[in-house]
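Handout, page 2. Input:
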Amino acid sequence: MNFGNQSTRYLIVLLTGVLLFSCVTSASAKQSVEIELTPQGKQIRQVYEELLVKLSAEVIQSLPAETLPTRAAFEQARGDVSALSAPSEKDGPKAHQEFQKQKSAVEAHALEAARAVLADSESVLSDDSLDGKLMRIAILRHGTPAGLAEFAQQGEQEKSLLDNLLSDDVLMKRMLMAGGANGGEYGEAMQVYTAILGASQRARKPGILQNLALGTALHQPWLSGKERGSVNGLVFADNENPDGQVARYLHYEKAFLSGELDPAFKDFNAWECRFITNDPYTNDELTWARQMLRNFRPDHITNENHSWRYVGLVKSDLPYCSTTHDDSLGTSQQQALALGGVCGRRAFFGRFITRAFGIPARRSTQTGHAAMNFWTPDGWVVRLGAWWSMNWCGPQGGLDFYLDSRAREFPDIYMQVLRAQWIGDAFGEEDVNLRQYGRGGGFWDGLAFYKKRAMVEDANKEQAAVDAELATLTEDEARLLGESDEILGQSEIKEIEVPEEDRNIVVAEDGTITVPAVACTSPRNNNDKVTFLRSWDDGMQIHYRRLGERPEILRYSIEAPEAGKYEVSTLVATVSTGMNAIFRINRRELVDVKLPYSKGMWTQSKPQVINLREGRNSIMITFRAPNRGVSIKQIELKPVK
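Output:
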């Protein structure tokens, strides 16, 4: 397409080999670690290089010969976008307003020009007859012949893994649809994927667990304890997990089968699964996180506002303050919740608690700030920081990731995006710059980018209006919002129905009185300090929030079967130290009850002796301000014999 006459097409085919070898040499020169190949490795590299040239020539010959009359206008429009230069901060607000106006007009013109080219190339991008060759080209190009040979030269087992991949159209398509192997390490990804399939029968069957296995292998293709060697492509920010990829996969398989993960987990594709398993925390910490939240703040698990589900805990109970450390408080994330911290600690915890429940999340780096991105049913969102245009993750800008995530909602059409990229690979084109949102790159990769733009614009007009409002926040405004305890769009306090059976006070045969926390006479429902919650297991509980305008008193009226001394204790879940409940009995006696640091687990406080009279008694409970949050399940009053 756009090759002019047949002689020009023939010349391009002849030059393909030269172009591709130049591309491979250029890619290899960028490696921080020089690839060392054995004599056998050099032979394998030559085979891959010859295959790449052969397949590319065959693809180019198979493309239609007619020219695209709309191509020149599109390339000119893209050139106008690349020529834009943002004003400096010294230029003032008027210059920035003019730039934004000009930028919008130039980008709109480029998209309009792209639509014309896309219409002309519809037949090529919709045709799957070349997919087998194109997918092999994509893997050889991004893995590089030298990089793939470095893996294959290790032995017959390693080489067979790559041979199996390059002969399996279905698996190649699944890998490439899921974003390809991190760092171009397809051999290593096959190694991890094979190891997971060997450890789990369930991962071998199509569905969420197979998607999880593949996503884990693609995003973390380097087996724990094994030297990575050279990395031959872009590395998208990931974390080494301390338990290894197989154990991490098995952890999530078990949690899924036990019903511990978010209901949405079962429907994630392999690309989304890439962003679940790559935390630098242990499987034990993930187990703790789920149990802690079920005890301490179950409302964050069932929050109907999915854009704050789970991560709302950062706002409610992880205050913004100086970051300190105290190993006596437990793991790094238990310390984070106990002590609070600055933006980085809050963002790390937000990703951790979200992924613990099987929701994809990723880091969001911003100038002088750290935030997070995560999946919701309405699309990926930024939390604890500025909008997509102001963040990045490794080599990829936030806007590029956001565009890609939205385009992937339409997998059938997204195949046209991939085919355009693969054709660009056949021509040895440069890729579009991931950080500079559509700039740079060759014709076909640029067309792939604008195909995504067109898809998203056609399908998400309502989302565009929401995005435009969020994008008006300046970086400083968004940073301050991320550091505060305010939740953007926070809903009003809602009342909850408390069944009478959950308020029942029980007196046992030995005289022990068990008082449900929700049996208080005041308050009777939610306010800005006290939240009545349905417990995760059964019954109800109260959460006394660290936030709120003023201290609140919990009032209880209790009938004692006989007068005397009683040991009072409370069943609580806390996530910080130094918590004391102040008990006032019958308006006379004051008792300080020290609450245990329970790391979010239900724990009985140490008993304190109080005096009750026969019949009705009043007990008032409050906490000194400023306080940290505490969840209360019940109060126990046991006669002292």
